[in-house]
Amino acid sequence: MGCLTLNASFEPLTILTARRAVRLVLDCKAEILETDDARWFRSERRSIPYPIVIRLVRFVRVPRQFRRQVTNTFLFARDGYCCQYCGRHRSLLKGRQFLTRDHILPISRGGGNTWDNVVTSCSPCNNRKGDSMPSEVGMKLLCTPRAPNHVQLVWAVRRVTPVQVKYIRMFYGEDALRALTGGNDGIAELLRQSSNQA
Ligand SMILES: [Zn+2]
Questions:
Q1: How many angstroms separate the alpha carbon of residue 124 from the centre of ligand 1?
Q2: Most buried among 61, 127, 146, 191, by the most CB within 10 A?
Q3: What is the span of the domain harbouring residue 8?
Q4: How many domains does the chain have?
Q5: For residue 187, how far is its CA from the centre of ligand 1 (angstroms)?
Q6: CB within 8 Å of 73: residues ≥ 6 apart
Q7: Cα–Cα distance for residue pair 54/167, rounded to 1 Å
Q8: Cα(158) to centroid of ligand 1, in Å?
Q9: Does residue 21 fall inside a structural domain?
């Protein structure tokens, strides 16, 4: 189980390993807000309760660019783990097929690694498309890709404990939480909301 790490402003930032969280606490860079009292973290010099929520002592500015970086984890979540060309869900892929990141306008032709130029594609569709635009090879996108509401998506793809959820609710409110706790349907709902906002 990871440790939910909050900014000084209480904004949930990320999940760290307990070891890294303890390091921050021992270095006086973070304070412990919640612990798992059933477990203790023992370092060479001392034992401290196992942290499950910590808060950074000083506010960390998170660059907008970093928040919006495209990673396969978030890309696949944004697209509901479905190929955006043939519509197959990850669970329906066969044998050696897998999900990939497809650049609609290929990088070789000047396409960027931006949310509006990348989609989830199964490996056969990606191979078929190659270095072409979808229309050039008779392929069609199921949806127009958009930047997801990144902060919400971060929480959609991570498992959090009830105590950690309390802090996410505190910062983002009840609506965000409801979407997060609804499993894959919840993610789909989040994506609908974030594309409506775009
Ligand atoms: Zn496909």
A1: 6
A2: 191
A3: 3-56
A4: 3
A5: 21
A6: 157
A7: 10
A8: 25
A9: yes
